[in-house]
Write a structure and sequence with these properties.
alpha+beta; 3 domains; 4-stranded antiparallel sheet; 10 helices
């Protein structure tokens, strides 16, 4: 297969179609960080949970290294990695995709009854079902089933067969947990006008303002993976303030404006906001 014999060539082709790629070494895992980035000495992407300020030209920080820039993919700093690479990995979430990794025959049998048909790619032991739309990545959502999308990587195994479907609620529901009850704080505040008619017992106006400002900054400072960053930021804001009614149209407009300044379209913003609400069961 070309993706096995010529991983760099496959990577360039995928990147041209808008899929962020990275080389994977033996064991189907990313390459380790360079000496300068070891143990996050560079200060970027602590625990690989968020994109950071690191501008290392090497293949560092696992999924966060994925890129669509052909100049990076064929650069000398990536050359050694490609010589050792056994396959190509990609960042599904940043491509607006979700991979349902079905690890065995039982998982495949379950998917055929529980999920809508979509593009399927054979793996060593099972199949990858690929849907259009990004979401949170979670392993072991049920026996033999992993979700790979934002802040994760998947192995490219070929184009697969079938027509790709939109990400269904049935997949999103696999990672939704019952929301925990918020503990009341001593000082309650009233929900801003227009956001609802209930009280917010666990937040203050200053807390909300600081949270929105930090969210705007996170989007503004993103250097890559804008789609995924916007979605993760919306998810974080909604997980904190989505149930208490704090958020007003003004707050949402500020977040959308920050995303659009980074090149996101209004439609992408709306989809990311809706997807985040769906993920949290709002």
């Amino acid at each position: 297969m070309s993706e096995t014999l010529h991983p760099q060539r496959t990577a360039v082709s995928l990147a041209a179609s808008g899929v962020p790629v990275l080389p994977l070494r033996r064991g189907k895992v990313p390459f380790g960080n360079c000496t300068a980035c070891a143990d996050n000495a560079c200060g970027g992407r602590p625990n690989m949970k968020t994109p950071g300020p690191c501008r290392c030209p090497g293949v560092c920080h696992a999924w966060a290294a994925a890129t669509t820039d052909p100049a990076v993919i064929v650069s000398p700093s990536w050359a050694a990695a490609w010589r050792r690479a056994v396959c190509v990995g990609y960042h599904p979430g940043d491509a607006g995709l979700t991979v349902v990794d079905l690890d065995d025959a039982d998982a495949i049998a379950w998917a055929r009854t529980a999920l809508p048909a979509t593009r399927a790619v054979p793996t060593t032991r099972g199949e990858h079902w690929i849907y259009r739309g990004a979401m949170r990545s979670v392993n072991a959502v049920r026996p033999g089933v992993d979700i790979k999308s934002s802040m994760s990587y998947a192995r490219y195994l070929g184009p697969g067969t079938g027509v790709m479907a939109d990400l269904p609620d049935a997949v999103r529901a696999l990672v939704v947990k019952e929301p925990s009850q918020a503990r009341p704080a001593p000082h309650a505040v009233t929900v801003p006008t227009g956001a609802g008619n209930e009280e917010c017992p666990h937040r203050t106006p200053a807390y909300l303002e600081r949270g929105i400002a930090m969210a705007e900054q996170r989007i503004t400072e993103a250097r890559s993976g804008i789609h995924a960053t916007v979605y993760r930021t919306f998810l974080a804001v909604l997980s904190t303030h989505g149930r208490c009614g704090c958020l007003t149209d003004t707050h949402i407009t500020r977040l959308f404006s920050a995303a659009q300044t980074k090149g996101e379209t209004l439609r992408h913003c709306t989809d990311a906001w809706t997807n985040a609400r769906t993920t949290l069961g709002l």
